[in-house]
Amino acid sequence: MSDSKRMAVQTRFRPVQRYVWSGIAAIALTLITATSSKVFAAETTIVIEGCSLFDSESATLVPDQTVVVRGSTIIHVAGKNNIPEIPADAVRIDGRGKYALPGFIDAHVHVVHVLDYAHVTGDELLPLYLAAGVTAVRSTGDEVVAATLVARFAAAHPEFCPRVFTCSPLLDADPPIHRDIGRAITDPLLVPELFDDLERWDITTVKIYAGTSRPVGRAVIEESHRRGLFVTAHLGRYSAQDAVMDGVDGLEHIWSVFNYVIPPEIKNQPGHRGRLSLNSPVCESLVTELAQRKVFVDPTLAVFRNMILLPDVAGIHDHPDNALVPKRLREFWPVYLRRTGCPQGGSLEDRQLEFAKYLELTGKLYRAGVPLLVGTDSPEPQVTPGFALHQEMEMLVQSGLPPAAVLKAATLTNATVLGEHERCGSISEGKVADILLLSKNPLDDIRHTRSLELIMHHGIMCQPQALLERVPSE
Ligand SMILES: [Zn+2]
Predict the structure, then answer these.
(1) pTM: predicted TM-score of the whole model, two decimal places
(2) Distance, CA 381 to ligand 1 centroid (Å)?
(3) 463 alpha carbon to ligand 1 midpoint, in Å?
(4) Residue 52 C-alpha to ligand 1 middle, in angstroms?
(5) What are 80-122's pLDDT values in tens digits?
(6) Ligand 1 centre distance from Cα of residue 464 (Å)
(7) Which residues make Cβ contacts (< 8 Å) with residue 118, sequence separation at least 6?
(8) What is the C-alpha to C-alpha distance for residues 29 and 51, in angstroms, rounded to an integer?
């Protein structure tokens, strides 16, 4: 996204978000007694004293910091020699030996899709995200009325829900691949009219899907930019080279890069994906374009490993995170896998080699300077809402990213594509108080992001275990 496009995304008037933020502010003014969280009156001051603070701008840990929150806002971040006077009635939290991070954002979730088939409503799973330290999610394609209702529910219950940002339906061929969340658009001349409708749903993201042709894709990109919307794509018919040339802002899934760097002469060879060279001219050229144009790539490694390639590996289908979702969803996952023909890709060895290539390409994108997002594709099979983000972060480290780069991507970069980096994504004065307190250093081992002691969402203190207890077990 160019600077002018980014500015348009930042400054565009978005009524749903106005609703979301003002709804939360109204709630935060009220003193609520809840089992899962402590909500104080807006003027209450909360102080986290003496913590190591992850500065997501510089991707470094700053020792011995004190964070002062009043109501829903961070009002001071200071070293030990600059601490302002603390009111006598402030709630004080001893942060010594602990690590404060901005709340995580999951850049690729569905709050209706998949759940609709499993007779689960999106609101039932929202506490799982917050229990995992995910304080905001970007929907990347859902039935728009239902997703809007889930977003409103989340805004009304910040004490157990993350913020939900909504997306267009998947803009696709006719008929669309996913009939529950797709919208057919085949004539570029009809794109402005489609956007007149979409705009009234107050979406944050526009998503191009696999059946879209180049002329329609180009019209969608132009119209998105005209209206200050971020446009991302799960590519199929429209090639990565063309979409990047046409100015797409983001690409969803590592396939949206990988599938366009396979030389035609090897496409019919069995197992070729796991043996592909990523040093070919076509790969180098696409990676360079992505880096130069700063196209955001959201690899969503969790869904490729867990659902598409390796769901038959015991450690994946029996992963302890999977037990956290309601039984209705857990029992539906194998049905959905059968319906979608997963796992894909031949023998287990071939599939493992293929997944290793996705990690290799992700590392290559990072080293080239392509901005990466952290998204999961929850709640696709075995991609547990909230907790899959920790799996995703582990896989990004396996791909070659330093833990600090992963944490920056999961906070500040993800906030940027929502146009929200002025309000969240770092622990900074004036930003909303979405803060995690960890007992172990995540820069030593990315798995330490699971050592969550406290989750503060919009200035409300939540306990992880109490949030988990809100999720239905059946
Ligand atoms: Zn998805």
Answers:
(1) 0.93
(2) 11
(3) 29
(4) 35
(5) 888 888 999 999 999 999 999 999 999 999 999 999 999 999 9
(6) 26
(7) 328, 329, 332, 336
(8) 27
